[in-house]
Amino acid sequence: MIANVISGILNLPPVAPHSELFNVIHAVVRKLAHFTEYFILSILIYFACRKFDMSWKKAKLFSFLSAFVLACTDETVQLFVPGRDGRVTDVLIDSSGALIAVAIIKLFEKMVIQKRKRVENSNYQ
C-alpha cells in the first residue's frame, strides 16, 4: 500500500508486489523509518538528560553516543538471528538520524542563547 502511494506521488505506474520498484521503495521506507526512530530517540534522550540538569553539551554528547551504542548493539544482535544480518551501513543510517537530531538541537540552543542575550541587552538599556 505504501509503495503504491509513493508511486502515485511520483507519477509512476502501480507497483507490483516484489517487483524491482517495490523492493527499492520498501528498502527506502525501511531505512527512513530507522533514521526517524534514532532521530526521535536522540531527542528524547537529550531532553531526559536536560531534565536531570545535565549541561547542554554533555546532554547532546550523551544522546548521540547512546543512540550510536544502541545502533551498534542492535546490529550485533541481528548477526545471531536467523534470516537477519548486521550491517555497518545500518549503523551509519541510524547514527545519522541521531546526529541530525543533535545538530537541530544545537541550532535551537543557539537561537535560545541569542534571544536571551537580546532580552538581557534590552533590559540594560
Quick overview of this protein structure:
Helix content is 80%, strand content 0%. By secondary structure, the protein is an all-alpha fold.
Question: Which key features would you list for this structure?
Answer:
125 residues, 0% strand, mainly alpha
Task: Describe the model.
The protein is mostly helical. The chain has one domain (2-124). Helices cover 80% and strands 0% of the residues.
What is the 3D form? flat
Number of domains: 1
- By secondary-structure content and strand pairing, the structural class works out as mainly alpha
Reading the helices and strands in chain order gives HHHH
**Sheet with most strands:** none
| Helical content band | over 70%
What is the C-alpha radius of gyration, as a whole number of Å?
A: 20 Å
Number of helices: 4
Show unreliable segments: none
Query: End-to-end distance, in Å?
Result: 60 Å
Count of DSSP strands:
0
Mean pLDDT, all residues: 90
Give the DSSP E fraction (strand runs of 2 or more residues): under 5%
List strands and helices in order, with pairings.
Blueprint: H1 2-9, H2 20-51, H3 56-78, H4 88-124
